[in-house]
Amino acid sequence: MKHKKTFATFLSGGVLSFLLMWQRGLFKAQPPAARVLIIADGFTLVSFLYLGVGALMWVSTTGVFDIFGFAFKKAAHALIPGKDPQKVGKYYEYRLGKKEKQKKFQGGSALAAGAVLLGLSFAATLIWYRLEG
User: Of the candidates 25, 52, 69, which has an alpha carbon nearest to the alpha carbon of residue 110?
Assistant: First the structure.
């Protein structure tokens, strides 16, 4: 199951990169350096998208943003009439409750696909520098 998800992520990244390259005119570009630059751009944009989504998924599962949820809950209990702010409790108790419900990190395939696509974009950029200079 895990390998199917990773394969699907890599495949969708490749398809998105190709569609972006095609939209930018990969097959109409005349000098080879222009084609290589379009390829590098396609891989770079999709890799940043995947790396950003994977990083957000990782951060969301570590509990970094729990302090904001606690603050909003505490503020809501303080501002809404009839709600007792003391009922929310301390942050430590809130964090323990969230840790029990916390999901396992699922964004490894997005980070891996983003890293591979970024590597391909670096390789294409190096080839472009060779052709230009």
Answer: 52
Residue 61 pLDDT > 90, yes or no? no
The two three-digit tokens of residue 74, written as one number = 């505490």
Instruction: Write phi, then psi, for 65 (nearest 5 degrees).
Output: -90, 10
Closest by alpha carbon to 16, among 47, 57, 52?
A: 47
Average pLDDT over every residue of 42-48: 96
Q: Would you say 77 and 85 are in contact if contact means Cβ atoms under 8 Å apart?
A: yes
Alpha carbons 110 and 53: distance in angstroms, whole number? 7
Cα separation, 120 vs 103, in Å, equals 32
Complete DSSP assignment for 22-70: HHTTTTT--SHHHHHHHHHHHHHHHHHHHHHHHHHHHHHHHTTTHHHHH
**Chain centroid to CA 17: how far?**
15
pLDDT attached to residue 1: 59
